[in-house]
Automatic annotation (TrEMBL):
InterPro entries in the cross-refs: RecX_HTH_1st, RecX_HTH_2nd, RecX_HTH_3rd, Regulatory_RecX, WH-like_DNA-bd_sf
Name of this chain's protein: Regulatory protein RecX
Native source species: Methylophaga muralis
One Pfam family matching this protein: RecX_HTH1
Lineage of the organism: Bacteria, Pseudomonadati, Pseudomonadota, Gammaproteobacteria, Thiotrichales
Cellular component aspect of the GO annotation: cytoplasm
BP terms from Gene Ontology: regulation of DNA repair
Cited PANTHER family: REGULATORY PROTEIN RECX FAMILY PROTEIN
Length: 144
């Protein structure tokens, strides 16, 4: 049985979901492909439009926001997936997400409509929203 080429394997990954170039590179390295073959495959996929970091970033922001994650956490995760800072910044600015509304929605879904009664509840809700990646301003707004 002939093993699949780096390009074929990368196309298989991309068929399931968008991947950043760095993510694909790591997966192909783990699969045992040679570095020069990986670079050639990525170049080919980028030229044909099958792999595009900008499209990946847009899809990633959309999917993570739908799952209730805030701007800070999404930025951090994209950085870990090898997306360039400039691309993260531009894509986040273009994202049509109301982060304040999302923070309120996430807090209400988890803790109910009522504002926290005491300091302990308030601190618990703040920690939760911080973990989810919302800014201090968004958290404060959602608690009022």
């Amino acid at each position: 049985m002939k093993s699949r080429s780096a390009t074929e394997q990368a196309v298989g990954y991309l068929a399931r979901r968008e991947h950043s170039a760095v993510e694909l590179q790591q997966k192909l390295q783990q699969a045992g492909h040679e570095t020069d073959k990986i670079h050639a495959a990525l170049e080919k996929l980028q030229q044909s439009g099958l792999q595009n970091d900008e499209r990946f970033a847009e899809a990633f922001i959309r999917s993570r926001a739908l799952r209730g994650y805030g701007e800070l956490r999404i930025r951090q995760e994209m950085k870990q997936k090898g997306v360039a800072d400039e691309l993260i910044n531009s894509t986040m600015q273009q994202a049509e997400t109301d982060w304040f509304a999302l923070a309120i929605e996430v807090r209400c879904k988890r803790f109910g409509e009522q504002s926290p009664d005491d300091f302990k509840d308030r601190a618990k809700q703040m920690r939760f929203l911080q973990y989810r990646g919302f800014t201090h301003e968004q958290i404060t707004e959602s608690l009022n």
